[in-house]
Design goal:
- Helix content is 54%, strand content 0%.
- It is mainly α.
- The chain has one domain.
- α3 packs antiparallel against α4.
- The protein is elongated.
């Protein structure tokens, strides 16, 4: 959710990147984070430019959330009827 809410621009005041926070400029995951942020704003071209696998990552994350919800939500109890 934080990646969807963060600004995809280069705002130096706000970053989730541990590498940026400790002063290292290179981070292999920042492009993916920016890609996801652009995607949630509907900018597919910028998302793909930031990282080509951003769209795929969101699909995988949403699928995993779906599977976890199915696993942990109470199942509807059905009763067999006699014929």
């Amino acid at each position: 959710m934080l990646l969807a809410l963060m600004s995809p621009g280069t705002d130096p005041h706000y970053s989730l990147c541990i590498f940026k926070l400790i002063g290292i400029d290179f981070c292999p995951g920042c492009g993916l984070g920016h890609s996801i942020s652009h995607l949630f704003r509907g900018d597919l071209q910028a998302s793909f430019s930031a990282h080509p696998l951003g769209i795929f990552a969101v699909i995988i994350i949403l699928f995993r959330i779906y599977k976890l919800l199915l696993l942990h939500l109470p199942k509807k109890i059905t009763y067999a009827t006699r014929h």
